Amino acid sequence: MNQRLQVAIDGPAAAGKSTVAKQVAGQLEYIYIDTGAMYRALAYHALKTHTDLHNGERLSELLDASEITLEPVKQGRQTVLLNGEDVTKEIRSQSVTNHVSLVAQYPAIRQVMADRQREMAAGGGIIMDGRDIGSHVLPNAEVKIYLIASVNERAERRYQEQLAGGLQTSLEQLKADIRQRDKLDSEREVSPLIKAEDAVEIDTTSLSINDVILRILEVIKERV
Ligand code: DC
User: Fold this and answer.
1) CB-based pocket (< 6 A), ligand 1
2) Weakly modelled stretches of the chain, pLDDT under 70
3) Structural domains in the chain (count)
4) 94: containing domain
5) Mind listing the pLDDT tens digit for each residue in 124-161?
6) Are 217 and 29 a contacting pair, CB within 8 Å?
7) CATH for 141
8) What is the pLDDT of residue 162?
9) Distance 38 CA to ligand 1 centre (A)
């Protein structure tokens, strides 16, 4: 496939976006761009520097001083650098997960992030995942996918992931966290989580990762 398209993958937390996006990117030799990691890196930076998360101006200043780099995926893993420091692991902490939606609600922050994301996507040959990619960041993306799955299924997947990583967690707590993030992401005033009109919706609740990848590759082929 020689054409270098822009592929947008949106959907709620834990719907499997990054897992499938990384693999599709690998197969097509596209660049994978995890926009959630960018918001997470800023939330991590704010928590680490004790910046008030309710002060949008201070957060904007912090973002201006933050160089967030997404390295090319290697062996299914994308390294995230914050001002040159590897924060890949730190940005997945419970504390960052619990605070990131707060950081992502400010219009000025979203604007800077969206500008940086558009710059990264400019040459095509990219797969970008997030909440507002098809609807706002890349409205002209040739391919738009909207991935969903039931709350129970998403919580179960996170539960299995955390167990495998040796973490003690509660399934009920994970369900509550996912519901809370869905609410914050969907009810946010600026560019909330929404399915773009021209996006193809895929419900992954009873699909395997491979099924979802094949379906996305099909949609991409149809658009070429
Ligand atoms: O996909 P994720 O869980 O890593 O995203 C982290 C948070 O960032 C999520 O709570 C919503 C926010 N986000 C966003 O508002 N817009 C994006 N394009 C990507 C993520």
Assistant:
1) 13, 35-36, 39-40, 100-101, 104, 130-133, 181, 185
2) 1-2
3) 1
4) 6-223
5) 999 999 999 999 999 999 999 999 999 999 999 989 98
6) no
7) 3.40.50.300
8) 86
9) 8
